[in-house]
Amino acid sequence: MSASYTIKDLENLSGIKAHTIRIWEKRYGLLVPQRTDTNIRRYSDDDLKKIINISLLVNRGFKISKIAALSEEELYHHALKVNSKPEDTNDRIEKLIFYMLSLDVNSLELEVESLIQEAGVEKAIYQYIFPLMEKIGTLWQANSIVPAQEHFVFNFLRQKLIIETDKLPKTDGNEQLSGLFFLPEGENHEFSLLFYNYLARKNGHHTLYLGQSVPLSDILTIAESFHFDYYFTAIITSSPKDDFEQFLSDFSSKVSASMLYVTGKEAQNYKRKHPRNTRIVSQPEKFAVEIKSLDTKKK
């Protein structure tokens, strides 16, 4: 089944303003949308691909009058040539968005692998993947993408990060710091947690990764029998501040001998005083510095 997009969807996905798209339609006939019974424009997958290719060329200095004179095949080949040249960050993110929309796993894999080869895992995620996820969140809120497209890219990136983590050297001995990584019950957005686990593993820590939606009672049961130097969690889903505060209080009172690191929007928006053994992590770079200081303290 062919997808159907509004002009606002095209604006969100291509970066070209809706009024500009209307002008180009009228002046150059670049797109010929279908119309609903109430005269609302509806665009196809092919229309979306075309406007993204046009956006790519315009951003590289091509004049719209020249682009309008190109055939469909010429437009496609010009976009391919531009894609083969050095790109800025926004260009790379737009390509990832395009592959997500097309459900093009082969191109997505090649592009992500290229980013990792060029920049390394950490920089690729800081510079490209986290901004990509922010844009996907914006597109999701605007109903410009369907759940299948979001799940496709997130599951692909999740698998890729797990593979990169498995490539890291295994920890050896009891001298290394240990951390337990989990998402609280009801939390399922685990990419950031996987990345923090990667950073810890890269720093030589022994980590236990429990993943999504782990009841606090299970964590407390584990804490009674096993010692971890720190615990790490991410809270992204919105909840009443009192619930978040209760979670911090319950955890810190039961696991007072270890540090709890918390990241995610919910944590970063929390402005009240938190327990002494709790640290709010706003950026991965700060956590990387923090865990190095923990190493120094243990030694």
From TrEMBL:
Pfam family of the protein (one): MerR_1
UniProt keywords (A-Z) are: DNA-binding, Transcription, Transcription regulation
Q: Does the keyword Isomerase apply?
A: no
Q: Does the keyword Protein biosynthesis apply?
A: no
**Database matches in InterPro entries:** Cbl-bd_cap (IPR003759), DNA-bd_dom_put_sf (IPR009061), MerR-type_HTH_dom (IPR000551), MerR_fam (IPR047057), Meth_synthase_dom (IPR036594)
Q: Which residues form the HTH merR-type domain?
A: 4-73
Gene3D superfamilies in the record: 1.10.1660.10, Cobalamin-binding domain (3.40.50.280), Methionine synthase domain (1.10.1240.10)
CDD domains given in the database record: HTH_MlrA-CarA (cd01104)
GO molecular function terms listed in the Swiss-Prot or TrEMBL record: DNA binding; DNA-binding transcription factor activity
- Membrane spanning stretches: none
Put simply, this protein is called: MerR family transcriptional regulator
The organism of origin for this protein: Prolixibacter bellariivorans
